Amino acid sequence: MDKAKKRIICTSFANGKTHDFRLFKESKTRIHPKIESMTDTGYLGIAKLHANSVLPKKRSKKNPLTREDKAANRAISSARALNENVIGNLKRFHIIADKYRNRRRRFGLRFNLIAGIYNYELAC
Predict the structure, then answer these.
(1) d(CA 86, CA 88)
(2) How many other CB atoms sit within 10 Å of the CB of residue 39?
(3) Looking at residue 114, what DSSP letter applies?
(4) How many distinct structural domains can be found in the chain?
(5) Does 14 map to a domain?
(6) What is the domain range of residue 115?
(7) Does any domain span residue 12?
(8) Potential cystine with 39: which of 1, 21, 43, 70 (Cβ 3.0-4.6 Å)?
(9) Could you tell me if residue 17 is left (phi over 0), alpha (psi between -120 and 50 degrees) or otherwise beta?
(10) pTM summary value
(11) How far apart, in whole angstroms, are the C-alpha atoms of residue 95 and residue 116?
């Protein structure tokens, strides 16, 4: 997603319950090294693939988060809120909010058309 213009740039899909990070690795999508990638904690191994990535810090029983860590996590989540808002807007079309009941091979085409409609609405 282009953060400045709020446009959808790239999409990727998988059948069934595929984890987001596995989908990212299998899609072979590469991010330019100068671009900062802000992800959630589901992408824990992304630092090996993309050095300029920002992840929130996870807590554990033995290592609770400090105030600085919590503040950093809050800053990351507020920056990622834009991405979540775009996903929420796409769910308005019900293609990713509900179970998809049409032909699977056309899902990518339809989703990309919806992303195009979303981008067009932003331009108007």
Answers:
(1) 5
(2) 20
(3) H
(4) 1
(5) no
(6) 20-123
(7) no
(8) 43
(9) beta
(10) 0.71
(11) 14
